[in-house]
Write a structure and sequence with these properties.
Length: 177
């Protein structure tokens, strides 16, 4: 009964909103990728631009988690196809932007030295890129069968990686710096 009630009213809006935002996210990411060549060095030279990129990338990871259905049965086959495709497209676009962002952090690290913040961001970006690449691989390998379970499996592994990195940063960086 509780699952039926959650699929109505505000509950339905809460589970639908992240899925609708995927379309807007695709548009924003495409604009980012179109604009990058015209202002290529901005995140390399301007810390605020780089911070904006990284905040956006972490937000998109949360959006992907929020857009993932609990079960495939929650959606029609047609909507499953659209949602799965949108998630793959967003993940692919985010990998490209993440690699660009990571390159900017590494560039700033080489030029200005390793700091706790840079090391932390390099770790988070590396985890994000690996998770997104794994997500894309799992979605494209083996087709549509079990696509929701594959996403959930990847997110589950991602949480473990984030926790390990957070513990490392919290416990060991004070001794490193």
């Amino acid at each position: 009964a509780a699952s039926q009630e959650f699929r109505r009213g505000v509950g339905r809006l809460i589970i639908t909103f992240p899925r609708v935002l995927l379309v807007l996210t695709i548009v924003v990411l495409v604009v980012y990728l179109v604009v990058i060549p015209f202002n290529f060095m901005a995140p390399f030279e301007n810390r605020d631009v780089l911070i904006t990129y990284n905040v956006m990338l972490f937000s998109v990871m949360g959006l992907l988690v929020g857009a993932t259905p609990v079960t495939a049965d929650d959606l029609s086959l047609r909507l499953q196809n659209y949602l799965r495709s949108a998630i793959i497209v967003v993940a692919a676009l985010v990998v490209v932007v993440s690699l660009y962002s990571l390159a900017a952090v590494v560039y700033r690290t080489v030029g200005h030295g390793l700091t706790i913040n840079r090391m932390t961001v390099i770790g988070w970006n590396s985890i994000n890129i690996a998770l997104l690449a794994l997500m894309i691989f799992r979605q494209l390998h083996g087709g549509k069968v079990g696509w929701v379970a594959k996403l959930q499996w990847t997110f589950s592994e991602g949480i473990s990686a984030y926790i390990v990195w957070a513990v490392f940063v919290t416990i060991f960086t004070p001794w490193l710096f």
